[in-house]
Write a structure and sequence with these properties.
With about 500 residues, the chain is of the alpha/beta class. Helices cover about 40% and strands about 15% of the residues. It has helices at about 25, 40-45, 65-80, 90, 105-120, 135, 145-160, 175-185, 200-225, 245-270, 275-290, 300-305, 340, 365-375, 400-420, 460-475; strands at about 15-20, 80-85, 120-130, 170-175, 230-240, 315-325, 345, 350-355, 360, 380-385, 420-430, 445-450, 460. The strands form 3 sheets. Strands 1-2-3-4-5-6-10-11 form an 8-stranded parallel β-barrel, surrounded by 7 helices. It has a two-stranded antiparallel ribbon with strand order 8-9. The chain has a two-stranded antiparallel ribbon with strand order 12-13. Helix 3 packs parallel to helix 5 and helix 14 packs parallel to helix 15. The chain starts with 16 loop residues before the first strand and ends in a 17-residue tail after the last helix. 4-nitrophenyl beta-D-glucopyranoside binds near residues 174 and 435. One of its GO terms (molecular function) is beta-glucosidase activity. Keywords: Glycoprotein, Glycosidase, Hydrolase, Signal. Belongs to the glycosyl hydrolase 1 family. It comes from Leptosia nina. InterPro entries: GH (IPR017853), GH_1_N_CS (IPR033132), Glyco_hydro_1 (IPR001360).
């Protein structure tokens, strides 16, 4: 008999931790009060409101600046071990520099941290989740090397001010989305659309800024504060449309190197620097465009060494998988661009759709990504720093529950069968919030938020119960009520 093992793992290992994530601009609101300055998302949504699907913005969002005690109550109900949230740079340092510190902003995060401590919820703090002070953007943002200094100064301030309360730091959330979507495209603020150019300037400065913050923490703060510091890298995982087609298999690998490897290779490999295929492809395309130097600059030996090894854990944000269907130039891609530098055509004809166009449900892709991270980066310790599902906000969110269950099950499989070192899991997100250019039209939360009501009432969805049961028992909930009525056994 064929003996494929379908071991059904349900229990999480000892010490595995569960959390939930948010980001400052998506929940806080209070955009122009208590000393906060304008950030790039305030600027984009106010100057070009049509760029958000439902015309909403982050002015009030979930009003967490005023309602953070409600957030803490929800976190307590979910029973999470940790809460991943981000600091608003423009709230702490209104000029973006350390020449002005905003005491009300500083106090806000102390209040939140103290409330979390009271409930024994560990903070995981992201320094940068996309909301750059507009004044720094006016200087070019991450396209300007000065950002290396400004980010280090900002990190220095945060470590000094909060380091005795925070033991887990994340420098950047999803450098790919920052550099490609915001500098190389118009998908995120500041929507520069400098395709094939600004995206690569950004990655260069961002990786240096990350490394400088890491070394600062490592040398100056870690000895006293004893915490850890990492980066969260986003993945769309690329699979070959036909796994038996060796050309497609090779192309999918190229796509994964361009997507995940762009930021992971410089930090998590022995060799360091950008993936070789990325350097080669961009150099070759740049030559044929008649440029005098490649659009993607290589790191020199100093920076290769300086960036290597600068993350205590590999933080992975994962949502979805796309298919690579063939070589060639994407008809929708601009030229030059990151897309054309890959030279692959992709397709979304995989898995069940969600409320987000880019997002199909493919749990097997998640397992493959995790195995690939193990083999590509020498089996690093991993935290899943985001994973979640979008719909339109229903309270009986069976599809979200199924998404979580299948992805958590994939984690258990790769831990037990493949020895991947996944140490913790973060669900995106605590409550429906400002989903960037999708506004509130795509909802990822455990709690529904009514944005037509100034009190921003939050209502637990069924998935909140599911997660609560998971964190209480440290195993996948088996309760029939978490299945769609049509799929229940009794
Ligand atoms: C992340 N993709 O963005 C962000 O970190 C969150 O702020 C955001 O709300 C959440 O995921 C949901 O979108 C992503 O194309 C954007 O794979 C795009 C992708 C993944 C994550």
């Amino acid at each position: 008999t064929s003996c494929v093992s379908h071991a059904h793992y349900t229990k999480f290992p000892e010490g595995f931790i569960f959390g939930v994530a948010t980001a400052a601009h998506q929940i806080e609101g209070a955009w122009n009060v208590s000393g906060k300055s304008e950030n790039v998302w305030d600027h984009l949504t106010h100057t070009k409101p049509w760029m958000v699907a439902d015309g909403t913005n982050g002015d009030i969002a979930c009003d967490s600046y005023n309602r953070y005690m409600e957030d803490v109550e929800e976190l307590t109900n979910l029973g999470v071990d940790f809460y991943r949230f981000s600091f608003s740079w423009a709230r702490l340092l209104p000029t973006g520099r350390i020449d002005q510190i905003n005491p009300e902003g500083v106090q806000y995060y102390h209040n939140l941290l103290d409330a979390l401590a009271e409930k024994n919820i560990e903070p995981f703090v992201t320094l940068f989740h996309w909301d750059l002070p507009q004044s720094l953007q006016d200087l070019g943002g991450f396209a300007n090397p000065i950002m290396v200094d400004y980010f280090r100064d900002y990190a220095d301030f945060c470590f000094r001010e909060y380091g005795d309360k925070i033991k887990s730091w994340i420098t950047f959330n999803e450098p790919y989305e920052i550099c490609e979507d915001a500098y190389g495209d118009i998908k995120k603020a500041p929507a520069l659309n400098s395709h094939g150019v600004g995206n690569y300037l950004c990655s260069h400065n961002l990786l240096k800024a990350h490394a400088e913050a890491y070394h600062l923490y490592n040398e100056t703060y870690r000895p006293k504060q004893n915490g850890r510091i990492m980066i969260s890298i986003n993945s769309i995982w690329y699979e070959p449309a036909d796994p038996n087609d060796s050309e497609l298999v090779a192309l999918a690998e190229v796509a994964n190197q361009f997507k995940f490897g762009w930021f992971a290779h410089p930090i998590f490999t022995e060799e360091g620097g950008y993936p070789a295929v990325m350097v080669e492809n961009v150099a070759q395309n740049s030559r044929s465009e008649g440029l005098t130097k490649p659009r993607l600059e290589q790191f020199d030996d100093y920076w290769i060494e300086r960036i290597k090894g600068t993350s205590d854990f590999l933080g992975i944000n994962h949502y979805t998988t796309h298919l690579v269907t063939g070589p060639g130039l994407d008809p929708n891609a601009k030229s030059p661009s990151w897309w054309n530098d890959i030279g692959a055509i992709t397709s979304l004809e995989v898995g069940e759709p969600t409320a987000s166009t880019w997002f199909r449900v493919v749990p097997t892709g998640f397992a493959n990504l995790l195995r690939w991270c193990k083999s590509s980066y020498n089996n690093p310790p991993i935290y899943i720093t985001e994973n979640g599902y979008s719909d339109r906000g229903t309270l009986e969110d069976y599809d979200r529950i199924k998404y979580f269950n299948d992805h958590l099950s994939a984690i258990l499989h790769v831990i037990n069968d493949d020895g991947v070192r996944v140490l913790g899991y973060t669900a995106w997100t605590l409550m429906d919030n400002f989903e960037w250019r999708a506004g509130f039209s795509e909802r990822f939360g455990f709690y529904h938020v009514d944005i037509t009501d100034p009190a921003r009432p939050r209502t637990a969805k069924l998935s909140a119960d599911y997660y609560k049961q998971l964190t209480a028992n440290r195993e996948l909930p088996q309760d029939e009520r978490f299945k769609k009525p049509s799929e229940r056994r009794y």
